[in-house]
Specification:
Layout lengths: L6 H11 L4 H11 L8 H10 L3 H15 L17 H37 L7 H22 L6 E4 H11 L7 E3 L6 E4 L1 H20 L5 E7 L3 E7 L29 H11 L2 E7 L5 E8 L8
Parallel strand pairs: 2-4
Antiparallel strand pairs: 1-3, 4-5, 5-7, 6-7
Length: 305
């Protein structure tokens, strides 16, 4: 016999799923994962159809899949330890990153501002001093932490023209046609979070152009769409990947000057794509240079490997 949630449990989950906060809706959706099917399945489908947050979408999709497999006949008590899926783990990681970075920014920014204010009056020739340079460097690092916080945000999925998005990013980065060009000019409507995608695309574009500048080679940006995913591939003919290319994703790893770069660019870019249920990969090209592949799900509940 088909089991359903009792009235009190269903009301509690409904309150969470109706919350304006994505974190509350995610809690409600996760409660459904190990629960019997609700009495009003039509209402659940309506909730899923209007949900914009991809983490909540994934959790709801997993719940629907569980009910379709007969999961509603399993008592909660029979499986009180629930092994989280890959999308749940990414959501947990992202929530942790956001929580920690918010605390760091909240505590450190006022302190750095106070130090800068005091130092500007107490240090002789402050503007040209090493103290000023060091404080500016610390402020720049906090800006990097802020971008990591943004990269871990829950995605807001909208439809947008990927061709125009990529052309606009090249313009925003102030690259000339000799430096970078998109191969696709026709409209390409995809689903995704443009703000998170921007963090990944800009990093990839800058790395590719910097790697190609001394050689006078043009960076080529391709894009496309399948029923499952959207993709962007950025191709350069630069110096290629370092021998220890598996380490480039780690924070603080960079071949550039540590006086100007922190080495967090790829870490932030990859985090942004994971937040979109996507991926970002680097590979060496056959003759010279690097290919950067950026892929993300088109809302079918699957993560892109």
């Amino acid at each position: 016999m088909r089991k359903t949630l009792d009235m009190s449990d269903e009301t509690s989950m409904s309150d969470l799923l109706a919350s304006p906060k994505a974190a509350d809706r995610l809690r409600g959706a996760r409660l459904l994962l190990n629960s019997p099917a609700p009495a009003d399945m039509q209402r659940m489908r309506r909730i899923r159809s209007v949900e914009k947050d991809s983490w909540v979408q994934n959790a709801l999709d997993s719940a629907f899949a569980n009910w379709a497999r007969g999961g509603e006949d399993r008592h909660v008590e029979e499986s009180w330890i629930v092994r989280p899926g890959a999308s749940d783990l990414e959501g947990i990681k992202a929530e942790a990153i956001q929580s920690v970075t918010q605390v760091i920014l909240h505590e450190m920014r006022p302190l750095v501002l106070d130090v800068r204010t005091e130092a500007s009056t107490e240090v002789p020739a402050y503007v040209t001093s090493q103290t000023s340079t060091t404080i500016d460097r610390l402020r720049a690092f906090l800006d990097t932490i802020n971008r990591l916080n943004e990269a871990a945000a829950a995605p807001v999925t909208v439809e947008f023209d990927l061709s125009e998005f990529l052309a606009a990013e090249i313009r925003e980065c102030k690259f000339t046609d000799e430096q970078a060009v998109t191969t696709r000019k026709d409209p390409l409507i995809v689903k995704g979070d443009p703000d998170l995608l921007r963090l990944a695309v800009r990093n990839a574009l800058r790395n590719a152009v910097e790697a190609s500048e001394g050689l006078g080679k043009q960076v080529v940006v391709n894009s496309g769409l399948t029923s499952r995913e959207a993709w962007v591939v950025i191709l350069d003919e630069g110096v290629g990947l370092p021998s220890s290319s598996d380490k480039v994703w780690k924070p603080g790893v960079t071949k550039k000057s540590k006086d100007e770069h922190f080495g967090w660019g790829l870490t932030i870019a990859q985090r942004a794509m994971l937040s979109c249920s996507g991926s970002m990969k680097l590979s060496g090209r056959q003759h010279a240079g690097t290919a950067c592949e950026i892929r993300w799900s088109q809302g079918n509940g699957d993560s892109v490997e």
